[in-house]
Amino acid sequence: MILQQKDLNIMLETAVAAARLAGDRAMEEINTVKVSIKNKTDLVTQADTICQQIIIDHIKETYPDHGFIAEEGKDGNLFERPPCGLPVWWVIDPIDGTNNFAYGIILFVVSIAVMYEGQPVVGVIFDPATESMFTATKGGQAQLNGKRISANDSGIDKFSNLGLDSHFDGSVPGWACKLMERTRFRNLGTAALQLAYVAKGGLTATIFTSPKIWDIAAGALIAESAGAVVTNWQGKKIFPFDLHNCKAEKLPIVASNKKVHAELINILNS
Q: With 80 as the cut, is the pLDDT of residue 46 above it?
């Protein structure tokens, strides 16, 4: 079976509704946050699991046989339930920006993607603090609250905003120092939102060293639908991605407008 545009539209409506439900609940929870540490490296809050369950429950009402990959599973592992029939997966990050959320910083999003045969075909990123709903379907427009958005055509200069990671293992790498010196570098604390802002044109590019598939699946589709380029650090496509064998691996990526992508790849590999 091949998914038709009408199928994608229904999935998009489902994802938008689920994201809004989860985002609204997260805003209710932010003033009573309970924080713990998972895998000795990441913070997690009670809202992460609550919001994830809200999303999954809503999706299952319409798509009980679809598969799920989500960030918050048992004992710090990912949540995984393979599809029963059609190879459709919902890839979910209930709160992308948990570190912000844990400290009451209202800069986080809900990220939901639908992936079919290893490719994102629906993407939704919802910023509940600003009521910003970024959306895209495969082959369609990237939109913010129903209006078309596009990547910018800026170069890498002292006026351009460029997104970087919030931290690095060990010392700051040379390529990051070069870009910090040349641009007005930014980190929002949420990979999905930085990808959305590449799509909107607010960021010329964003570079990540260690995101997971749930951080980037929705944002990659939205950014590419807005005319941006999303690849690994070698300039190769990151999709299709084998969700059946997902091990929560790190997926270093570059997302940028078309003008600067080749230059960024050169900087990363020089």
A: yes
Return the amino acid letter for 73.
G
Q: Which CATH number fits domain 161-268: 3.10.20.70, 3.30.465.10, 3.40.190.80, 3.40.50.10540?
A: 3.40.190.80
User: How large is the average pLDDT for residues 254-270?
Assistant: 97
CA geometry: angle 142, 145, 148, nearest 5 deg: 35
| pLDDT tens readout for residues 72-110 | 777 667 899 999 988 999 999 999 999 999 999 999 999
**Global pTM value:** 0.95
Predicted confidence at residue 1, as pLDDT, reads: 65
Q: Which of 261, 159, 246 is nearest to 207 (CA)?
A: 261
Phi, psi of 209 (to 5 degrees): -95, -25
Encode pLDDT of 150-196 as tens digits.
999 999 999 999 999 888 877 889 999 999 999 999 999 999 999 99
Please say whether the beta carbons of 88 and 112 come within 8 A.
no
- Structure tokens that stand for 120 in this block: 């994102």
**What are the Cα distances from residue 93, in Å, to 98, 171, 183?**
10, 28, 29
Nearest Cα to Cα of residue 15 among 72, 89, 90? 90
Asked if residues 52 and 94 have their Cβ atoms less than 8 Å apart, the reply is: yes
Contact by Cβ (8 Å): 103, 111:
no
For the domain made up of 5-148, the CATH class stated in words is: alpha beta
Quick one: CA dihedral 229, 234, 237, 242, positive or negative? negative
Q: Residue 40: its pLDDT value, please?
A: 54
Domain boundaries along the sequence of the chain? 5-148, 161-268
Calpha distance 174→170 (Å, rounded): 12
Element (H, E) at 137: strand 132-137
